[in-house]
Task: structure prediction
Amino acid sequence: EAQVTQNPRYLITVTGKKLTVTCSQNMNHEYMSWYRQDPGLGLRQIYYSMNVEATDKGDVPEGYKVSRKEKRNFPLILESPSPNQTSLYFCASSYRATDLDTQYFGPGTRLTVL
Amino acid sequence: QKEVEQNSGPLSVPEGAIASLNCTYSDRVSQSFFWYRQYSGKSPELIMSIYSNGDKEDGRFTAQLNKASQYVSLLIRDSQPSDSATYLCAGRNSGTYKYIFGTGTRLKVLA
Result:
């Protein structure tokens, strides 16, 4: 089944404790992206990747890191999480990033930073 | 002006009516748009994309793009209670590969 998977789905952590949220897709997509969703602010793009070893900042990259060493995986790293990073996170992928390409979203990761 | 702007709603329509969801965008957004539906607690799923001026129909859904007015809309005909969700309008930032989403419009279809 074609899908985007994220792990963990739920995470409660404490300020400053490094964490990684994994994202994997099995559709051979070149474009992958991370978003956060907050009430009243909608979906905001954190980072995106056009292909392996090609990443770029979205609108809200502060406090996050990403890497794209393999085409299928795009982990999101929070080196020192803070309470303002409490949010619902979505990973998404598409074949490319043209006007014709559909983004497929993962199921989401709900993160709480205490 | 926000790059992609939507009324947050809720928009309430009776079952069987036409629901009209609207989105405006700024000059910084490329003129191709995506409508996503998001049920509470779930991930967004694509309903339609549109990049040409005019209307595009797919079943009960019609997307309309007016580039002169910088306006894109989604019409849902014969609305059903199962259409109750938040609808997100999205475009791509001109000259980049960043996606910009509106804050979403919550639709309630009343049985």
The interface with chain B takes residues 31, 33, 35, 40-45, 48, 50, 56, 58-59, 90, 97, 99-100, 102-108 of chain A (CB under 8 Å).
